Amino acid sequence: MSTLLAGAAWIRPHEPVVAEPGRRPAHVLAAEFELGDDVRAASLGVTAHGIVEVFLNGGRVGSDELVPGFTSYRKRLQVFTYPVGERLRPGRNRIEVLLSDGWFRGRHGFERRADGFGAETALLLQLDVVDGTGEHVAVATGAGWRSRPSHITRADLMDGQAVDFRLLRERDGATGDDLASDPDGGARPWHPVALASGGLYDDRDRLVVPVAEPVRRVETLVPASVTRPRPGTAVIDVGRNINGWLRLDDLGPRGTHLTLTHGEVLDADGLVSTENLRAFVFATGERLPAGQVDEVISAGRAGDVFEPRHTTHGFRYVQVDGVPDGWDAAGVRAVVVHTDLRAVGEFACSDERLDALHEIGRWSFRGNACDIPTDCPQRERSGFTGDWQVFVGTAALLSDVHRFSQKWLADLAADQWPDGRVPTVIPNPAGDGPSGVVFEDLSAGSAGWGDAAVLVPWELWRSSGDLEVLRRQLPSMLRWVRYAASAAAATRHPDRAAARPEPAPAPWEPYLWDSGFHFGEWLEPGVPPRPDPSADHSIVATAFLHRSAHLAAASAELLGEADVAAECARIAEGALDAWRREFATAPGRLAIESQANYARGLAFGLFPPADRDAAAARLAELIAENGGHLGTGFLSTGQLLPALADHGQADAAYRTLLSTGEPSWLGMLEHGATTVWEWWDGIGDDGTVRGSLNHYSKAAVLSFLYTHVAGIRLDAEPGSDAAGYRRVRIAPLPGGGLDWARASLETPLGSLSSAWTFDDAGRFRLEVEVPDGCVASVELPDGTRHAAASGRHVFEAALLGA
């Protein structure tokens, strides 16, 4: 049993009537205790079913937000610990905790269902104090605590937060971070808390120490503009799409009621529109409100600051209604909130459009790294497996996502079904089994989404060289591969069975994954998204079966698990044979032609080596036939340009990268994007807006800027002597009219960089910095190769084309 918070008891706030979801208040839970004058050290540990802020003697403890974070609460609940000795004093001390619904019982996901993990909020806290004699004094949650509703009259991560400052009594020395509750009672009496036991409360083994960086207020932005489109309304443009909240220091006279609506776009009247963020109920089609609405009622008291720390929003614009005459917007600030990840990658080049693309891709990731990797920071805020699967390799070039991803992978393994399938979102409110919601249960195990169980830890291994990641995740990898292989073998697609009514399937068909529900490529331009369980996505699913089985075999080989490696290798070979026999026609041609299928086939090594250049040439033809525009969706967009460039089509790769109009990456910039969109036509030429304007999956193209434009490349399947940048290939690929480019990475070994330019004579000049412990193989555009150990090196090549 875990010893974390062993002296504390679970307590629940007094809540005789539970408000409707999205309208539930935060509660204050409080206790007082006596201390002597010889406190030497003190440590406070806390966790909750919900979100907490802790205050000792009126001061906020720590700078972490959304504690205890989002995990698979039934199996993994994080305990946060803080040193608090400086906040204690001799004599009477007071501890207060604000507790709100958070992810535990708040509204969540596309359909915004509440009570996903339980119907009650609860607190578990222990304060350990060491006095001058070395004796330990423990103050812990238990029967002596009291509770009441707080000045936060509603708090929900999706719907927003409302605060009534009139419910607080002014205290000397109060600051914007102080809870400043009224300790004397008043109109809202205190009640004894309820002790909680049984079920999850009794399972202390699920209490874990956090492994990932916490969520914090990372940056504060001064608004780009404030407009007044109508009397009583101000619209704040924070300048870019972010995840976080708005901080206000002018709340108006007492009784002023401000309503803050957050969105990504403005309508024709200059007001915030949230129509593009409205989801719907799958079963009925009923459209849901967009949420993201905060409210604050002023007490007319100087020093009160509105900062809604029990919610976050995805937004660029905030419409503030109820603004009184004379309202001062000078102190308005946008607070950027996300996991406090260390930036590791930088890129720049001579084309400012690519610099801008890099910037909006980075901001899109920042907006979706809020304790878990989310798909979008506004409409559903869920940890979609497919999104992180396609982006994690790119994310590792931008930030240190090692611990962040390990936390999420632990939840993936916890929520994996007994038969090995992986839910579409992680953490999953339904846990490790069906939810009873038809579409959710149907989509669990979709190819390209469930494959995150294998592909995410593999990418972490490549970038970090941490073999323990593979060791921890190998059981989950194997369960997924076995599930996918058994699903492929279990049945044939009805259309295939009707077309080939032989007494027995073809020999390769047991490895052809043509059954079950799959999202497929998802959101290809011009292809309406129709989640159809009868659709045959076998060209996608079989490709992923091969890829995951192949990398699971490679992982097992690295770990010395020979039997597992052999089992997965057999599945990988079977799926490869099935894909080639079923879909390959003439050399380098496919029976089902799409840019996605060719890009994936090249990226996964599905085409025979002799056919790969022909396949890349056909891919380039398909792009040309599409007016020079890409045609990929979620799964293969990040694979498109490397598939071209690595097989003799570098010019086509650059043309596609630099294409404009719709669909294209630069087309988003042309329409003012500050983050990457869910749909290629997120904002149309006519101004029509559709879907989320902050989805990072299409920003996977940023990998190409590092790996090909600047040329910093890891082995696709590194061994123990190469992973984690122990061995690297520097092979820049000039093109697209670029005059220079550079990229740098803070690797586990130190700083690695590649910077190239053309001198006045047109000669190619490359400067490389290699960290200690790394060996670089340098390949120049003229075909010459060099070895480079640690240190700075300069290489030159003859005029290209001379």
TrEMBL record:
<keyword id="KW-0378">Hydrolase</keyword>
<feature type="domain" description="Alpha-L-rhamnosidase six-hairpin glycosidase">
    <location>
        <begin position="343"/>
        <end position="709"/>
    </location>
</feature>
<dbReference type="InterPro" id="IPR012341">
    <property type="entry name" value="6hp_glycosidase-like_sf"/>
</dbReference>
<feature type="domain" description="Bacterial alpha-L-rhamnosidase N-terminal">
    <location>
        <begin position="38"/>
        <end position="168"/>
    </location>
</feature>
<dbReference type="Pfam" id="PF17389">
    <property type="entry name" value="Bac_rhamnosid6H"/>
</dbReference>
<dbReference type="Pfam" id="PF17390">
    <property type="entry name" value="Bac_rhamnosid_C"/>
</dbReference>
<feature type="domain" description="Alpha-L-rhamnosidase C-terminal">
    <location>
        <begin position="721"/>
        <end position="791"/>
    </location>
</feature>
<dbReference type="InterPro" id="IPR016007">
    <property type="entry name" value="Alpha_rhamnosid"/>
</dbReference>
<dbReference type="GO" id="GO:0030596">
    <property type="term" value="F:alpha-L-rhamnosidase activity"/>
</dbReference>
<dbReference type="InterPro" id="IPR008928">
    <property type="entry name" value="6-hairpin_glycosidase_sf"/>
</dbReference>
<dbReference type="Pfam" id="PF08531">
    <property type="entry name" value="Bac_rhamnosid_N"/>
</dbReference>
<dbReference type="InterPro" id="IPR035398">
    <property type="entry name" value="Bac_rhamnosid_C"/>
</dbReference>
<dbReference type="Pfam" id="PF05592">
    <property type="entry name" value="Bac_rhamnosid"/>
</dbReference>
<dbReference type="GO" id="GO:0005975">
    <property type="term" value="P:carbohydrate metabolic process"/>
</dbReference>
<dbReference type="InterPro" id="IPR008902">
    <property type="entry name" value="Rhamnosid_concanavalin"/>
</dbReference>
<feature type="domain" description="Alpha-L-rhamnosidase concanavalin-like">
    <location>
        <begin position="229"/>
        <end position="338"/>
    </location>
</feature>
<protein>
    <recommendedName>
        <fullName>alpha-L-rhamnosidase</fullName>
        <ecNumber>3.2.1.40</ecNumber>
    </recommendedName>
</protein>
<dbReference type="InterPro" id="IPR035396">
    <property type="entry name" value="Bac_rhamnosid6H"/>
</dbReference>
<dbReference type="InterPro" id="IPR013737">
    <property type="entry name" value="Bac_rhamnosid_N"/>
</dbReference>
